[in-house]
Structures are given as C-alpha cells and as structure tokens.
Amino acid sequence: MNPVYIGKVSYKKKHIYDGLHQVIIPQELWDAVHKKLTSAPEKRGRKRSSHKFLLQGLVRDHNGTLYTPVFTTKGKQIYRYYVSRDKFEGKEDPAAPSRRFPAQELENFVERTLRSHLENTEKLAEMSGRDHALDYEQLKALSSEYTDLSAEALIGKTAQKITLLEDSLVIETGLHGYEITVPFRMDGDATCAVVIRPASTGTPEDIFSLPPHRLKNLMKGIVWRDEHFRGTSIAAIARREECTDVLVGRLIKESLEIA
Fold this sequence. Notes:
Structural class: alpha+beta
Number of domains: 2
Helix content: 25-40%
Distance between the termini: 22 Å
Strand content: 15-25%
C-alpha cells in the first residue's frame, strides 16, 4: 500500500521518509491495511442469492392486494419482479401504481429508506418513543446495531407491511406501529415500472451537510473502496474492521453514488 496515504514517501521501495503533503488516512488504518495486503490472498465472502426476495409477503397496493414474487429468465439472465395478484387474475385498477416492479430496485429503495431513519438517532428516538436527549447513548447503540445488519436482517426485523401508493410508499414498522412515508415515483409503463429515487431525498450537494454518522460512513466507504479497487477483498476489510462484509459492500456502493 502506498505510504503517501499516511503523509510519507518511499525511496526505491526500501526506505520511507516523512513527506510534505497532508495525511489522507490514519496511521493505524494504514498499518492494518498494509498487514492484510502483504498476507496471503483471501477468498471473497459469499454473495446473496439472486433469487432471494427480501420483501416477500410485505408489499401491497392501496386496496391491500398482495404483490407476489416471480422471476423470469432470458438467456442466462434472471429477472426478479414483484407482481400484483390482480395481474394474474386479469383485473384492472387504474388507481394502482403499477402491476409489476423490478425486485432489486424496490428492495434497494426500501432498504435505503429504513437505514436513513434507523441510522439517525433523532428519527430513531421518534420511532421508538424515546427521549433523544435522555436516551441518547441507548439510541446510539441501537442505531449501531441496525447499521451492522444485512439488508435481509434489517427488513425482516423492522418492516411489517409496505404499501405502494400513486406517488408515495408507506413502510409500517414494528417500532410502536411507526409508519415511514416517503415520496415514490416510477418511470415506465403500467406493466413494468422502474423505481426512481425521489429528488427530495437525493444526495446533498455539500457532503459536509450530511449528519455526522453518515459523513463518517462515507469516509469509511471511500477508503474501503480504494482498498478494494487495489485488490483487497471485502471479506478481508470486514475482518479487519470487525464488521460484516455486507456493511463494507454497502458503504463502498454508497461512496460510488456520492463521491
């Protein structure tokens, strides 16, 4: 790993001296990464099955009609969807938002929405009925627990029902019956919509306007992204940081969207 990251320069790959430039990452992190990079290569962690439907049994329209998980194949490609049961029965409902949603996009949208609330102590206090000032340490610890959960575990633990409306999405949580309502729109026709992130919940232009916990996660994601692109496996980073490879992968992905 390049010592430039810790404010040093290398001479003929044998000697390292203090440089005049600014330190990019802490010495402790550089030492840990360097140790991993010089050790034997490790296998990547197992990926989530592409057939797994994280929202199975949760998604309904305004009438309570269930969206059933299905998948189709085209060549070697597998496409997953949540399809309204009305489609199977040949029913038409002009007020329904769509009859078919791409599964991955909808699952990602729900996960992002849950994390934006559960990883924010103020929102978590509102959801759990706690006092933010008095219970801050407990809320911080609880938020940290949610941060480390995989998408499957997070949704399974917190989401009880998801209702798709014409221009919004409502997630009923298991936290005192708290409901999260967020803007939600689609591009596409009535048979197969493409989920689009609402502009009102987009990334702030200035990353320093992010809440402290999100800014910290963004910095982690950028450093981990650079390490991963240089050959360090996600599993190796997760073991070093004592967190899940799901968390490492998510923060790397979010760093690509923001920075």
